[in-house]
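Write out this protein's structure.
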Amino acid sequence: VSGFLSRLSHFFHPSSLEFCDLSRTTSNEEYLEIGRQLIRILISSADGLLLIDESRLLSGIVDEIKKQNSLARKKSREESCFSFARLQMTMSPGYFHFLSEIDQSKGGDSLLERNRLYDAYYQVVELADQILLIQYILSSMSYATEGHARNILRKVASSPHESLRLLVPSFLVYVASDVPCRGGSVTAWAIEVLLSLVFDASPAVRCAAAQSLVLVIDLAAENPYLDPGESDARFMHLLELRPMLDLAVITDIRPLILRIISDERGFAYLNEQGIVDSEMESWGALEGIYYVQTIELDISRALAYGPLFSSTPDGAMMMTTGSQTPPTPPHLFGELAKCPGGRSFLEDM
């Protein structure tokens, strides 16, 4: 049995160029599942863990990741298993499924650390030209507890490269999708990281972070695996962080402001910071005009192209799969009317 496992380990070793050079096809997906089963068998016993060390499977994966370092690529003429082309065309991304299996196993984190995987990760996530590889790295780690995974994602979130920081908001929506918001939970942590990005130097990152925060809060209400009060728990955690939103660029984070202002507790919090008054001024001036123009444009497009077409971000029109009318964007007055404090505020105007 050990001889068979050794030969199988050799097949999956990056240096053998057997598994990692397979074309990414449906028929070759079975090799990925075989590899995952192999990893599960090996990490379930002391002898299996020893075989992983002796076969240098993990160290081989780490060496290939290190080859993507800019300096290493200049020195070497060999193409890494994790080059952009191979990640797209071959089964090389399967290695991150193997690493995920190890990471989620008992003692797996120590095994990965002993093979210096995280050292390689810390180097690669600084490289703006390795976006695809970084996406695979982020998706392979568990963020359940404080440790290397969270530190690496924080490093990406604080990268000097906007393109890397933009990876974080939507990824955190995925990370927080099924986990209840409790102290120290990945959902609570995700909300905290997203909130820090609301104050990012880039308008694109600020906008993405604000929209992702709204999704993290609201999608919980639609998740059948979470308690009915989960959305409220996430909303309260956001308020408990006491964000100084009056220091943010409101124009870029308006979806978040409108979501907060629609709740009685959120309305009171924003009113304390003077944001409610400033928003009323903005909507009474330009924002109200922009809103009307947006609605008019949506209506004119629907009349011109019909309900089976919708606009793309670049303004072009594309056919949709259904005739459902696109949702009306939120309006300040409509959001204020959702809570008693907001209604009273409107009546007093």
